[in-house]
Amino acid sequence: MESSTIDSPCVAVCALDEKGVCLGCYRTGDEITDWFMADDQRKQEILREAALRRDAFTRIKLL
Fold it and tell me: In degrees, to the nearest 5, what angle opens at C-alpha 26 toward C-alphas 57 and 21?
């Protein structure tokens, strides 16, 4: 099995909001759990979804 080159987006601020979204990385609880077994394609999907949540949550846009 090939190892992933995609790093986890975890920023060690692990707290889920009332919708089950992490306040640190904006992944859902299921996405956090799935990350460990996900292939690179799935990890890219998770990162895109988390970025959409982050952008919807805040007016400050990170580059």
Answer: 90
DSSP 8-state secondary structure symbol assigned to residue 23: T
Give the single-character DSSP code of 7.
Answer: P
**What's the pTM value of the predicted model, to 2 decimals?**
0.82
- Helical (H) or strand (E) element with 3: none
Digit-coded pLDDT (tens) for 47-60: 999 999 999 887 66
- Residues 39 and 31: their CA atoms lie apart, in Å, by 12
28/63 Cα distance (integer angstroms): 22
Residue 28: strand pairing partners: 21
First CA to last CA distance, the chain: 33
Name the residue with tokens 């975890």: 10
